[in-house]
Design goal:
Blueprint: H1 4-13, E1 58-64, H2 75-91, E2 93-99, H3 102-114, E3 122-126, H4 127-135, E4 159-161, E5 172-174, E6 184-187, H5 188-194, H6 199-204, H7 210-220, E7 233-236, H8 239-249, E8 255-256, E9 266-267, H9 272-286, E10 311-315, E11 328-331, E12 345-347, E13 351-354, H10 362-371, H11 384-390, H12 394-404, E14 408-410, H13 421-429, H14 435-453
Parallel strand pairs: 1-2, 1-3, 7-10, 12-14
Antiparallel strand pairs: 3-13, 4-5, 6-10, 6-11, 8-9
Length: about 450
């Protein structure tokens, strides 16, 4: 893919979707006036810095299911490559990037950690995989390997924390926070051909709602040549993913945080917010505005259906739109009646760096990690080059930066092996069950899967 090099550097430096934190607004007090003195003030000298820790030629390993190594493909990559050389010399270390196939990754991680010899010092993990490892005590909290002076705890210039897991901070990213996230993409060429209103204008005017979304999907589903077959469709996407996003945009989640005094999380299928959201999803299919290419309404491969160019609106991640032969635009998921603009989508693909328990000198390892990202910011805003390689208008990047970035809600139903979310969606979309009855049908199984893992504190 033509944007793969840019994507790899993006993944190294930052994440698509991170929930933004807030900082206090206390201002410093004015210093007391100094009395004038006649004697000459001594020249200010810098305090000597403590020498860097000599790690004795140790190899520090960073792992993922792709190659994390920076390349010199652009100015940012060149700066990262040069900075790595400086850090290796400063600390007398060697940085090694371990690339393990996705299907083998977690087995290798778990086996090595249980043996007391983690196969990498810093491991990239999916959040859904991190939940059980945290429950087994296999990951260190950020507070266990950082100091009050670490960048992650001060200016966040060299590193920043990921969303909390089970009420604690474990995950982190290198570099400044990036821009990205999930939204509704739309085929601008098809919109123009069909005379449909531009979605970004609707959004900016406060008119981008669930009802408007369904209305446009109906308008875009047409038999343009009167042969009795639909030639264009209003929407496409993987039903399960789209449903999660509707739930999040309506203020719900597939798994709910434990209530006060309770130890475990709660299933979210029977939450009225979720039921209302899945009713919207079901209405898309009952109104026949969704293109189903595979013949299976809930097939994950429907996530690629939009690439045919005959679908007006679709759910598609940014890495999927780089080689399209039509122009795309993007807006946030429309907010539901019970939602708010602070959350517009559900993020099941959150991943980040973690330090496994058993790593030798984790404080020193983490300090080395932070300094790998001590490079100049060469873009007007983080991930500028990547976003501009995908989108053709400033409005697209504006929408992402101002209205999508930081609005993802971590959804962890996939962390529970027996959680029946996909079965719930299939019962509604394929079997035409009512949403409320399907939710009740799978409620007990959903809660049992949570309780079995004990994935809450």
């Amino acid at each position: 893919m033509r944007n793969m090099k840019a994507l790899l550097i993006l993944l190294l430096v930052s994440c698509f979707v991170i929930v933004a934190g807030c900082s206090g607004g206390k201002t410093a007090e004015n210093p007391a006036p100094q009395k004038e003195v006649e004697e000459k003030t001594p020249e200010k000298t810098e305090e000597p810095q403590a020498p860097a820790v000599d790690l004795g030629g140790r190899t520090i390993k960073l792992s993922a299911w792709w190659d994390l190594a920076p390349t010199d493909a652009d100015a940012t990559g060149q700066a990262l490559v040069e900075q790595q050389k400086k850090v290796e010399e400063k600390y007398n270390v060697k940085i090694e990037y371990v690339n393990v196939p996705y299907e083998e990754y977690m087995d290798k991680f778990t086996t090595s950690v249980l043996a007391g010899e983690p196969f990498s010092d810093i491991a990239y993990l999916e959040y859904k995989s991190a939940v059980p490892t945290i429950q087994k005590g296999q990951l260190l909290k950020i507070s266990e390997f950082t100091t009050p002076n670490s960048s992650i705890n001060t200016d966040q210039r060299l590193a920043n924390a990921g969303p909390p897991l089970l009420g604690e901070q474990y995950a982190f990213y290198g570099g400044v926070k990036g821009n990205g996230g999930l939204g509704i993409h739309y085929n601008r060429d098809l919109f123009e051909k069909l005379g449909l209103p531009d979605l970004q204008q609707l959004y900016d005017n406060g008119e981008w709602t669930w009802s408007k979304f369904l209305e446009i999907a109906k308008q875009a589903t047409k038999d343009t040549n009167n042969d009795g077959k639909m030639d264009t469709y209003g929407f496409s996407g993987w039903a399960a993913v789209v449903g999660r996003n509707f739930i999040a945009a309506n203020g719900g989640n597939t798994v709910l945080d434990p209530q006060e005094g309770e130890s475990n999380a709660k299933e979210g299928l029977t939450d009225p917010k979720a039921i209302e959201a899945i009713e919207l999803l079901a209405s898309l299919y009952s109104n026949n505005v969704v293109k189903v290419k595979t013949g299976d309404k809930v097939n994950w491969e429907e996530g690629d259906t939009f690439k045919d160019g005959d679908v007006a609106m679709f759910h598609g991640t940014q890495w999927m739109i780089g080689d399209l032969n039509f122009e795309v635009g993007v807006v946030p998921y429309p907010i539901g009646p019970k939602g708010s603009p602070e959350v517009t989508y559900a993020d099941t693909a959150v991943n980040a760096y973690f330090i496994p328990k058993g790593v030798e000198d984790p404080e020193a390892v983490y300090q080395v990690f932070e300094e790998l990202f001590d490079v100049p910011q060469l873009e007007e805003y983080p991930t500028q080059n990547y976003l501009e390689s995908l989108y053709s208008t400033e409005d697209d990047t504006r929408i992402i930066r101002e209205h999508i970035t930081g609005t993802g809600l971590v959804a962890l139903d996939e962390a529970y092996p027996e959680y029946p979310y996909n079965d719930f969606i299939a019962d509604v979309i394929v079997n035409n069950a009512s949403v409320a009855s399907a939710a009740e049908k799978f409620k007990q199984q959903a809660q049992a899967s949570i309780d079995k893992l004990g994935a809450a504190k």
